[in-house]
Amino acid sequence: MRTPIVAGNWKMYKTIAEATALVREMRRELNETEGVEKVLCPPFTALSAVAELLRASKIRLGAQDMHWEDQGAFTGAISPLMLKELCQYVIIGHSERRQYFGETDEGVNRKAKTALKHGLVPIICVGENLAQNEANQTEAVITGQVRAALRDLTSEQVKGLVIAYEPIWAIGTGKAATAAGANAVIGLVIRGTVASLFGESVAQAVRIQYGGSVSPDNIAEFMAQPDIDGALVGGASLAAAKFVAITRKAAEIKGTHK
């Protein structure tokens, strides 16, 4: 059974003081929620402070991006060597990185390889935009992104990483995909692509989240789907009560220790 994973992507929100206050508000309840992996992804400036608060907990820490080089003259970039001291996870290829910062499929692949080399678990994001969705290009777009992201990885590496399906038209819009629709993309397209590349056993082992306007009100619908293994939560992860509710519902429906 795949262990469900719920990750909170705080994006460009929360000062260090605000981040530590938010963690303190939800740390106990998250820590007590069993059967689901919990990951918090604050901005880079708050990673160290949040890492200290999570040190004795069962809550994992993730970064929102990283460079593919270990070090070098890359002003403003963050190295995997800097992250591995603090984090267990790193988000790679989020649609906002692709849209606003020129992230490419090749760059996603390079970052995934580097993250794995340094023992960081990549959460690799894929998703189609509204025009692609309406033009019935979802399958082609997602297949291409998955194939590019996983290029030259081994079966063992793929088994251990996480893929997040985030339809771009549903991120921050309040308009989530239907649970059945998301499950179809995750099961048939993403798992199907992984199976074609690495075999069915790898496809059944890899964890795939849904992301895009996830809330306490709709999380149960997504978690009831057989191929959805958790959620990458945006706005709702900035409110302690909402993120705790999402995590608890994921554990209740999908938890491995029910």
Structural commentary:
This protein has 258 residues and is of the alpha/beta class. It has a single domain (5-241), classed as Aldolase class I (TIM Barrel). Helices cover 46% and strands 15% of the residues. It has helices at 16-32, 47-54, 80-83, 95-101, 105-117, 130-134, 138-149, 155-160, 179-198, 200-205, 219-223, 240-254, and strands at 5-9, 37-41, 59-63, 89-92, 121-126, 162-165, 207-211, 230-233. Helix 1 (16-32) runs parallel beside helix 2, helix 1 (16-32) runs parallel beside helix 12 (240-254) and helix 7 (138-149) crosses helix 9 (179-198).
Could you state the oligomeric state of the chains shown? single chain
Supply Rg.
17 Å
What is the overall silhouette? globular
**Main sheet: strands, sense, barrel:** 8 strands, parallel, barrel
What percent of the residues sit in helical stretches (DSSP H or I)? 40-55%
Count of DSSP-assigned helices: 12
Beta strand count: 8
Look at the structure and give the mean pLDDT.
Answer: 96
By CATH, the superfamily comes out as: Aldolase class I
List SSEs in N-to-C order.
EHEHEHEHHEHHHEHHEHEH
List low-pLDDT spans. none
The CATH class name reads: Alpha Beta
Write a concise synopsis of the structure shown.
The chain is of the alpha/beta class. 46% of the residues lie in helices and 15% in strands.
Features:
alpha/beta; TIM Barrel; 8-stranded parallel beta barrel; 8 strands
Spell out the blueprint of helices and strands.
Blueprint: E1 5-9, H1 16-32, E2 37-41, H2 47-54, E3 59-63, H3 80-83, E4 89-92, H4 95-101, H5 105-117, E5 121-126, H6 130-134, H7 138-149, H8 155-160, E6 162-165, H9 179-198, H10 200-205, E7 207-211, H11 219-223, E8 230-233, H12 240-254
Parallel strand pairs: 1-2, 1-8, 2-3, 3-4, 4-5, 5-6, 6-7, 7-8
Helix pairs in contact: 1-2, 1-12, 7-9
